[in-house]
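PROTEIN DESIGN WORKSHEET
SECTION A - STRUCTURE
LENGTH: 325
TOKENS:
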């Protein structure tokens, strides 16, 4: 089945994906909306270099959604974080299915609005977290649900990157566009994977953040409690040497499970497995749309994440005071 795909936000992430997607015979990128003319032109050339026709260009997302009715099946949204909520609701209300770049939205209120739009329109929405699409992450969650690991006792999650220098001067370090700093950008992968595998709502959070002279947080630590009684710690360190890595340890009553934020590797009782995350989220999205695969990364998952993020921001603003989620 051919997927006629539109793109909102044709920046570097979308262009990177387009190198593979445009070459797939089952995908046709038919339109792209981007406010930066240079980025829009670059995206079209990427599609051409992959052997496909350049998508119809638009400088405005709403204009694309209106003009492409009957000519487009779904939309991939890859705009700056603070635009995700409005873009996502506009896409599904215009009658298209949605593959939405991470993080899903920036606040709980936006998550609830998207959940309402999903229910009203009955459109397919998949959130493009690598961990959310990782077979290792989902296998781990299913085995935990079957009781194979015993009760969840606690979680220790860490992620680190030379983010302060790698993204200096870019939109990710502008709070008006990014919705947060390192914890909400790279750290979002860690939080989302913990939310999925802990499989329980957060009920109380205490957080500290340090901007280290920037406009957004570079270092964040969090202590939290889950409704199932387990305790969680997060450590996000975005000011350090070059490179990026993560390790999340789940302490169960029967076994210890370690996994990274993107689901690239997993250790159960010390036995390590390597499992490539899906480098083409579009394949998973198509399988979900066609009913061949259950949705592995849902709006409900995104809502749990958004509630946690709102609580972290509130606690950090109150210098670590514990807050209810």
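SECTION B - SEQUENCE
RESIDUE ASSIGNMENT:
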């Amino acid at each position: 089945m051919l997927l006629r795909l539109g793109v909102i936000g044709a920046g570097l992430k979308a262009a990177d994906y387009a190198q593979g997607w445009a070459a797939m015979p089952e995908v046709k990128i038919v339109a792209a909306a981007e406010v930066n003319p240079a980025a829009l032109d670059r995206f079209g050339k990427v599609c051409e270099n992959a052997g496909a026709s350049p998508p119809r260009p638009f400088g405005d997302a709403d204009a694309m959604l209106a003009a492409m009715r009957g000519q487009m099946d779904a939309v991939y949204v890859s705009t700056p974080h603070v635009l995700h909520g409005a873009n996502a609701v506009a896409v599904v209300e215009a009658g298209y299915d949605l593959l939405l770049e991470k993080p899903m939205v920036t606040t709980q209120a936006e998550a609830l609005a998207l959940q309402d739009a999903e229910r009203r329109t009955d459109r397919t929405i998949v959130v493009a977290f690598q961990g959310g699409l990782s077979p290792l992450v989902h296998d781990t969650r299913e085995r935990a649900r079957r009781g194979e690991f015993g009760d969840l006792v606690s979680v220790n999650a860490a992620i680190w990157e030379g983010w302060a220098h790698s993204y200096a001067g870019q939109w990710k370090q502008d709070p008006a566009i990014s919705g947060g700093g390192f914890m909400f950008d790279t750290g979002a992968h860690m939080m989302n994977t913990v939310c999925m595998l802990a499989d329980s709502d957060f009920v109380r959070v205490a957080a500290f953040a340090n901007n280290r002279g920037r406009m957004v947080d570079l270092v964040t630590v969090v202590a939290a409690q889950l409704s199932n009684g387990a305790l969680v710690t997060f450590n996000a360190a975005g000011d350090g040497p070059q490179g990026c890595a993560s390790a999340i340890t789940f302490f169960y009553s029967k076994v210890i499970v370690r996994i990274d934020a993107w689901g690239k590797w997993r250790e159960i009782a010390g036995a390590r497995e390597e499992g490539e995350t899906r480098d083409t989220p579009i394949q998973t999205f198509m399988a979900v749309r066609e009913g061949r695969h259950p949705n592995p990364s849902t709006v409900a998952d995104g809502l749990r994440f958004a509630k946690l993020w709102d609580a972290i921001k509130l606690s950090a603003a109150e210098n670590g005071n514990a807050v209810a989620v």
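SECTION C - NOTES
The first strand starts at residue 3 and ends at 8.
The CA atoms of residues 31 and 55 lie 4 Å apart.
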